[in-house]
Amino acid sequence: MKSNPGGGLVYSTDAGRMCPVCRKPVAGCICKQAPVAKTDGVVRVSLQTKGRGGKSVTLVKGVVLDALALAVLGKQLRAACGSGGTVKDGVIEVQGDHVDTLMAALQKQGHVVKRAGG
Fold this sequence. Notes:
The protein is α+β, with helices and mostly antiparallel strands and 118 residues long. The chain folds into two domains: 2-33, no CATH class; 42-115, SUI1-like domain (Translation Initiation Factor Eif1). It contains two helices and eight strands. Strands 6-7-5-4-8 form a five-stranded mixed sheet, with helices on one face. A hairpin with an 8-residue loop joins strand 4 (42-48) and strand 5.
């Protein structure tokens, strides 16, 4: 068994890779099923260029969905924009300036949407 300096088990010869949060095998991780943090119910869409080499990325924050549903929504939004992107830490990132397109798509799905950051 190996452990990391933070104290959590990261690998077991019996079960393989371990989740550092719930300390269960990655295949049986219960973190993905954990309830999503409560927000004010407003989805915020913003544009960010800082720290990205001048390239713009549209961020979608505040969507109250579990990890799997958020990944599916991210894929739908990226397809609507015809662009790449990812989902990291509950934030959907879409490459390029697609604020208006994403706001329209989210409103069509019934979300309360606000533009954030100017």
